[in-house]
Amino acid sequence: MAFLARISRPTDIVISTVQKQCSATRALSTVTRSSRAFCIAETRTKRPKGVTSIRKTPLSWPAAQFHTTTCRHEAGDSPRPPTDFAAMDVLGNTPVPSTTVDICQSDGFQLNSGAKILDGSGVILVGGEAFEWKPWLARGEHRLLNSKGQWEIPNEAFGLLSLLWPRPDLLVIGVGPEIRPLSPELRRYISSLGMRVEILDTRNAASQFNLLVTERGVNDVAAALIPIGWKEGIGANW
What we know:
- The chain is an alpha/beta fold.
- The chain has helices spanning 2-45, 159-162, 184-192, 202-216; strands at 101-105, 108-111, 116-117, 122-126, 129-133, 170-174, 196-200, 221-225.
- The protein has four helices and eight strands, in the order αβββββαβαβαβ.
């Protein structure tokens, strides 16, 4: 019994110690949970300095709609007139030069002055004057393209421009019903005269010339146009 008694006392001690440890653990867990809740509560209630409350309260005024503007017209005001885009045309009151092209025909042209260039002839427009132009005569046949399909005529065909001084800054060439590349030799010759060159089909070339000559003047822009009815080997008078 004494042996058993000696064993029973440590058991009670162990049980008592375990109970104390469990109580301490529960207390520690309670303290930990309380501390954690306190920290969370403190974090949630923490607010910037100077802010008295961050609670959500309903707005006392209606929220403005996005991208809205208030009406600037007052009662009794007359409606605004529509925008007149014609009045915004800076060239609207500029007189049109007499050498602008009014009509591109299959065998020639009609100018703003009323002059007509027909019978399949081309035209050179420079310095406010119009000159009948047949650049194919230098070859003796109705051909304006070389073997590579490039638009090429003898340099003598631009002899009129070589006599002018000062010369135009830009030469607009209308090569016929469809656009063709200019041969490098002819481009170099025109550049040697101090002129820039723009290659277009005849309809667009005439339109471009009309715009530029009205804006910049007859002395700065020239045009050399082939009729829109031109056919290689046949001409425009067929």
